[in-house]
Write a structure and sequence with these properties.
By secondary structure, this protein is α+β, with helices and mostly antiparallel strands. It has a single domain, classed as DD-peptidase/beta-lactamase superfamily (Beta-lactamase). It is built from 10 helices and 10 strands. The strands form 3 sheets. It has a 6-stranded antiparallel beta sheet with strand order 2-1-10-9-8-7, with helices on both faces. Helix 1 runs antiparallel to helix 10, helix 2 packs parallel to helix 6 and helix 2 runs antiparallel to helix 9. The longest helix is centred in the first third of the chain and has 16 residues. The protein starts with a helix and ends with a helix. Pfam families: Beta-lactamase.
Length: 299
C-alpha cells in the first residue's frame, strides 16, 4: 500500500470515528489489485441488509441467465411484465413509482404486490425516460424466477454465491413467494467485495461477457438519487461504476486501479409497517468519504 493510499484511508477512519454524521457506518473494506489493504468492522451485524445493492445482484443474476440461455433476448418482453428485460434493467419502463406504487406502500399489502406494481399508470413510452423504480427490480426478480423455473435464491446459490465462495446470506421473499428484487438481501462486506471483483473481471465464468460490459456502461443519463448515468441496475460515473443503497451501502469499482471499495451502514431498520430506523438527522454515507478522499488517490 502506497503512502498516499495509507494516508487517505487514515483520514477516512479519523472522520468516521470523529463525525457524528457517520455514527451508523458499520464497515469499510478496500481491495486493490485483488488484495485487501483495509478491512474494518465498526458496529452492527456482519451479515446485514444491503438494501438497494440487491438490485445489482439481480442484474448480475440476469447476466448469468443470459449466459445460460434462459434470457436469449433482452429486448423481448420479460415474463409477467408489460415491458422488456432491458427496460427493467435500465429503469425505463415509463410507469409511476410514487403514491400507491411506491415500494413501501406496495410491500404493506398482504398480497397482490406484483399486480400493484404492474398497475402503475404509464407516464412515458417504455425505454425512453429513466425513473428510479424499485418496482421494476421486483418485477425483474419475478421474471427471472419464471425464466429459470426456480426461486431466485436457489438460482443465486448455485450460479453466483457458491462459485464466489459466499456461504452466509438471507434473501426474504414477498407473500407471493417472489424473492425481493429491490432490497433486503443480507450479505457481508467481504461478499459484496467479491461481487465488485466479479464485475471488474467482466463477469468471468458466471455472466455473459457482453451483458457484463453493458451492465457497467452508461445506458441512459440516469437521475435521482445519485444523478449520474445508469447501466443495468448499476450507476456509472467518470472513474468507474458503483452499486448504491440506502443508509450508506455501496460497492465502488475503480477499474484503472483494479480497486473495489465497500461501505456498509447499520440504520437499525424495521420494515414495519410502517418502516422505522434509527438514523440521526444529517447522516452521511461513508461513500462520500470514499469519493472525496480515496478515489482521487486511486483513479
Amino acid at each position: 500500500m502506497t503512502a498516499r493510499l495509507r494516508a487517505a484511508i487514515a483520514g477516512i477512519e479519523e472522520q468516521l470515528h470523529g463525525d457524528p454524521a457517520f455514527a451508523h457506518v458499520s464497515h469499510l473494506l478496500v481491495r486493490v489489485g485483488g488484495r485487501v489493504v483495509h478491512d474494518a468492522h465498526y458496529r452492527g451485524p456482519r451479515v446485514a441488509d444491503t438494501f438497494s445493492l440487491t438490485k445489482s445482484v439481480i442484474a448480475t443474476l440476469v447476466g448469468a441467465a443470459v449466459r445460460e440461455g434462459y434470457v436469449p433476448d433482452l429486448d423481448a418482453a420479460a415474463p409477467g411484465a408489460d415491458c422488456t428485460w432491458r427496460q427493467l434493467l435500465t429503469m425505463t419502463r415509463g410507469r409511476a413509482v410514487d403514491g400507491p406504487w411506491e415500494i413501501d406502500a406496495v410491500m404493506a399489502l398482504s398480497s397482490g404486490r406484483l399486480d400493484r406494481i404492474r398497475s402503475a399508470p404509464r407516464l412515458d413510452e417504455p425505454g425512453v425516460t429513466f425513473r428510479y423504480d424499485n418496482g421494476a427490480a421486483h418485477l425483474l426478480a419475478a421474471a427471472l424466477r419464471e425464466a429459470t423455473r426456480m426461486p431466485v435464491e436457489r438460482y443465486a446459490a448455485t450460479r453466483l454465491f457458491d462459485p464466489l465462495g459466499i456461504t452466509a446470506w438471507d434473501w426474504p421473499a414477498d407473500s407471493d413467494g417472489v424473492h425481493l428484487g429491490f432490497g433486503h438481501l443480507r450479505l457481508g462486506a467481504a461478499d459484496l467485495a467479491e461481487l465488485g471483483e466479479l464485475w471488474l473481471r467482466g463477469g468471468e465464468g458466471i455472466m455473459d461477457p457482453a451483458f457484463a460490459r453493458a451492465m457497467t456502461t452508461a445506458q441512459n443519463p440516469g437521475g435521482p438519487p445519485e444523478n449520474v448515468p445508469y447501466g443495468y441496475l448499476l450507476w456509472v460515473d467518470s472513474y468507474g461504476y458503483f452499486a448504491g443503497g440506502w443508509a450508506g451501502q455501496s460497492i465502488t469499482v475503480v477499474p484503472a486501479a483494479r480497486a473495489v471499495v465497500v461501505t456498509t451502514g447499520d440504520p437499525r431498520f424495521d420494515p414495519g409497517p410502517p418502516p422505522t430506523d434509527a438514523l440521526r438527522d444529517g447522516w452521511r454515507s461513508a461513500r462520500d468519504l470514499v469519493v472525496e478522499r480515496l478515489i482521487p488517490v486511486l483513479a
